[in-house]
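Retry 2 of 3 after timeout on previous attempt. Resubmitting structure tokens to design endpoint.
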């Protein structure tokens, strides 16, 4: 027996259906993801029998510091990020996506979703989402866990995204993809201090994060989703991206044992 890296294939059960996506976070990465998901939905409808139905959750409002780096305008100041961008997308694309001004999983659960996408700032938020996914009971139809968990994160000039299959939904299948909490076990350490303080101005926000880092990370993540949902398979599970060096390092799929004829 030897190991080799295979492609990961989308389940056949995703044909002829609206894929339910829960997007958690509508800030830097999340807003870029939401706009890209609208384009992905249009592409899926054109080339396949699939479509997307997205629910967006975020408890933040648009501030002065968000202008320029996030896709909001001065007229949006003080308004809910999730509701503002979702309403804009629904009007532009004729969709009926849902916005929740709140937090996940406190104000909206993860059950019944096909894909959870996290664009959050802290490890604590990821731990809370992971715990909610783990609490799902697959044997009950109304408590089905998501099949995929796509997580995005970034620092000033670099970031990463990774897609995984929660154990509750995939069990011990050999092609199961580790989730972000498995790939980065240090996220489970709640003793590490976190810096999630908001910026007070556009200039300060740009000192903390490069102008286009969110757009670049989100674009790569969306390209992965397009391959999975539009083409039916992916050859990598994510990537590390560095804008300063211009490099992108793919995260390989786990090696799958295969039988070799004698």
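Retry 2 succeeded. Sequence:
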């Amino acid at each position: 027996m030897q190991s080799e890296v295979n492609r990961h294939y989308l389940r056949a059960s995703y044909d002829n259906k609206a894929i339910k996506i829960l997007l958690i976070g509508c800030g830097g990465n999340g807003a870029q993801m939401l706009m890209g998901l609208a384009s992905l939905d249009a592409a899926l409808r054109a080339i396949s029998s699939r479509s997307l139905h997205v629910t967006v959750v975020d408890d933040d409002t648009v501030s002065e510091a968000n202008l320029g780096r996030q896709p909001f305008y001065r007229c949006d100041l003080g308004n809910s990020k999730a509701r503002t961008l979702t309403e804009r997308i629904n009007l532009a694309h004729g969709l009926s996506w849902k916005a929740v001004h709140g937090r996940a999983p406190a104000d909206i659960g993860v059950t019944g979703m096909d894909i959870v996408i996290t664009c959050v700032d802290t490890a604590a938020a990821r731990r809370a989402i992971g715990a909610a996914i783990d609490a799902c009971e697959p044997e009950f139809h109304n408590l089905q866990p998501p099949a995929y968990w796509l997580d995005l994160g970034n620092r000033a000039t670099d970031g990463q995204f990774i897609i995984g299959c929660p154990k509750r939904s995939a069990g011990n299948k050999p092609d199961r993809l580790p989730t972000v909490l498995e790939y980065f076990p240090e996220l489970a350490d709640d003793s590490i201090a976190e810096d999630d303080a908001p910026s007070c101005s556009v200039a300060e926000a740009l000192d903390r994060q490069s102008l286009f880092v969110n757009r670049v990370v989100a674009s790569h993540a969306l390209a992965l989703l397009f391959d999975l949902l539009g083409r039916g398979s992916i050859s990598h599970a994510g990537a590390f991206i560095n804008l300063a060096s211009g490099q992108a390092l793919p995260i390989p799929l786990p090696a799958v044992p295969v039988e070799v004829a004698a």
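Attempt log closed. The helical segments are 28-47, 81-93, 123-134, 167-170, 180-183, 202-208, 213-231.
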